[in-house]
Amino acid sequence: MPRPDAPDPSVAPSPAGASGWPFAITRSVDTGFHVVVAPDFLVSCNLHHLLSDVAAGQAAEDTAYLREYRDRGNLRLWVLYKVSHLRGADVGLDSEYALHGSRRTPLVEGMVCLDRPQPPTDGLFDWVHEVCAAPVKAFFTADSDDHPVSSSAYAEPPATGTALRVAEADPYRSERNLQAALPGRRPPSARPSPPVTRAVPAGHRQDAADPGTGPGRHGRVEAGRCRDPRCAARVRRARGIAVASVALGLAAVLIVLLLCE
């Protein structure tokens, strides 16, 4: 079970550690629980449902929860969330709470972060609530299991408000290789990365001005551009065989013509 601990600002990472993707999970009158808002990189590969597994379990309303997600690959994510109840005003109702039957409707809201986030504030969750308000209202009003999941973009919430108590749960370990399922097989990256220069073997250099040349480009190999002695020898041997074949063909034609006279 998670152990609530008071935030310790002295060991908190830099403010950039709080940056991430907002998400929200709730239910409507006739549906079960659904991930309503999720990070765009999870929605794009239809893996947003893992948030339900990471944030599952009993939770107190006055506590924020932090859990690390670890998969079978190299990708690690931090899920920071808080549980409250959906209010009538959130979905256009006059009642204090949005009910399903006689029960209040739980609402899980939080952030998915690439790095361990700093201790959260109530201002952070107010911001997440505002970002997710319209999609949550649309989902509750539609009351349909087929309602699409809304994508959230990477953002940095305001660092205002009062620090909340944080309960850190044990890491969630998955047998899924999330990174392999992502588009392009790359982990989510919201920060600018330096350009990547690929090393090319010295014997297979390619002229950048001519993308049609070089090994592996439509089967074309030009001896003038190949600096590997073995490569050049293979080209010369292939040319010699081609010339010999042409000569033999011409000789055969001449022999046939002489025999027919």
Q: Quick recap of the structure?
A:
The protein has 261 residues and is α/β, with parallel strands linked by helices. It has five helices and eleven strands; from the N terminus they run βββααβββββαβββαα. Helix content is 25%, strand content 21%.
Average pLDDT over all residues = 77
Major sheet summary line: 9 strands, mixed
Low-confidence spans: pLDDT under 50, at least 5 residues? 1-17, 193-226
DSSP summary: helix tally: 5
List keywords for this structure.
261 residues; alpha/beta; 9-stranded mixed beta sheet; two-stranded antiparallel ribbon; 5 helices; disordered N terminus
What is this structure's SSE topology?
Elements: E1 3-5, E2 21-26, E3 34-39, H1 40-43, H2 50-54, E4 63-70, E5 76-85, E6 99-100, E7 103-104, E8 106-113, H3 122-142, E9 150-152, E10 165-168, E11 172-173, H4 178-181, H5 229-260
Parallel strand pairs: 3-9, 4-10, 4-11
Antiparallel strand pairs: 1-10, 2-3, 2-8, 4-5, 5-8, 6-7
How does this structure look, described?
- The protein has 261 residues and is of the alpha/beta class.
- Helix content is 25%, strand content 21%.
- The strands form 2 sheets. Strands 1, 2, 3, 4, 5, 8, 9, 10 and 11 form a 9-stranded mixed sheet that branches. Strands 6-7 form a two-stranded antiparallel ribbon.
- A hairpin with a 2-residue loop joins β6 and β7.
- The radius of gyration is 31 Å and the shape is elongated.
